[in-house]
Amino acid sequence: MLSGGAKSHLWNQIKADVTGCVVERTGVTEASSLGAALLAATAVGLIPSVSAGVEAGVQVTDHYKPNPAHKAVYDDAYARYCALQESLRDSFAL
Question: Which of 2, 26, 50, 67 makes an SS bond possible with 7, Cβ 3.0 to 4.6 Å?
Fold first, then answer.
């Protein structure tokens, strides 16, 4: 079972839209542990590379493609945020 934000279709789609990159979700629930195991297995020569271990043991379950129209909305909101932050900078200087 997936945990945290990885479970949310909406959150994964937002990440794709904001970054403009395809987001892939895997069925791996303990990615940190798997990463550590792949690094260890590579270090002791059980597998030729981390990439080979990922290819053999990690399966992509979902793909989230960015929506250019959504990206434009997020980019516009971020530009307004940056402008607001800049205009208020002196008000919050220590």
Answer: 2
Q: Work out the pLDDT band at 94, boundaries 50, 70, 90.
A: low
pTM for this model (two decimals):
0.70
How far is Cα 66 from Cα 47, in angstroms, rounded to an integer?
Answer: 34
- Can you tell me whether residue 34 is helix, strand or coil? helix
The letter for the amino acid at 31 is A
If one counts the domains in the chain, the total is: 1
> Structural domain of residue 69, as residue ranges?
4-92
Q: Which of 66, 73, 56 shows the shortest CA–CA distance to 24? A: 66
pLDDT digits (tens, 9 = 90+) for 29-70: 788 898 999 999 999 999 999 999 999 888 999 999 999 999
Q: Which of 32, 23, 35 lies closest to 60 in space, CA to CA? A: 23
